Amino acid sequence: MLNINKDDDLELYTDHIKSLEYLRSIKKEVFDFPENVTNFHVYSEIKSDKELMVIKSYLATQDLEHTKLILWSDYDVTDNPLLEPYKKYIDMRVYDRVKEAEWTILEWCDRWLSANDFHHWMDSWILRFVVPFKHGGAWIDMDTILLNDFKPILDQEWAYVWGQNLDFENFWPIAAIMNIHKWSEHAKICLEEILKTEVEPMTTCLDKDLLAKVYKRRKFTIFPAAFFDTEWSISHDDNEKNISQMIWEQCFSKPVKDDKWLFLDAFAWHWHNSSNKYKEIVHWSKFHKLQLHINKKLKERWIVDPDFDIEKHEMEFMTQSKQNTYSTLNKLKKFYHFYFRPKFIWKKLREVKDLNELKWHISYMFRFVNNVFKK
């Protein structure tokens, strides 16, 4: 385990350079894997090349004998073309929060088992604590690229700090990437705190807020942000404000000026989908360079055949996906203009002669929407 804390190792939490130097000095061969296989849990339907990176980076960096990747999704994704080259390495499961909550203290907690919101956060928050409690393992947010073997930190329970705020007991451990042992006291306390928490959709009530309550009851390891989100650590460092904006721009929108900004000594990079989901990946930006870096590792490990064109495979999928999206949007646009312009609606309602005609319009609307989204 990595036995560090904010009291004895303060500079690791406030200086990203010191953090990365520390990680570079770790000799992984002196660590042992846990006795049982460690699960890595990811929740996504993998709908883009960005989301696929969490799968590819796991396969490129982790020990596949001592760890297992479990991909949770809201529906069956076994036929997803993006996943085709990697299917044999993934345990794909459809997430049923009611079923997963069975035999836990949340089993009869309807307010949480039925909680939902526009951003899908409630599903994710419940899953990231219930699943590790029942199955154990590392939780990895979909918007994460793994950069190094987690072997040195799999035998301990941990999360990481949000930025450089060290008030762990009040607000700041983050649940984006963490490790929880099966049926452990730590895992149990997490569920107990969920049970005491009010449902607040589209908030961090089961993220930083929850882990702060857990930490207050029982201390656990909180790693520096630079271990998993180096840019975020830099952006909270008053001494690094002059380079923070430049580094963020290089993540997606501009070419990386120096490869040191890839921060390859970190365990991972949390790239923040909520802010960057729709950004184009510019050639030689950090994301693009990491794609090339991970693709090379996949071929070196024979996860895919060295002659397999990974870039072409993903580009074909994304091109087809965009075409399908445009087609759907055009259909919805037509549908909107036909039914949802206020003046038109009023005109149509006045023209309806009987109940059967009204039923036809309603039926048509439902059939149209069903055809658009039936896939």
Automatic annotation (TrEMBL):
Any GO MF annotation of the entry: transferase activity
Keywords: Transferase
UniProt-recorded name of the protein: Glycosyltransferase family 32 protein
Gene3D superfamilies linked: 3.90.550.20
Species for this entry: uncultured bacterium (gcode 4)
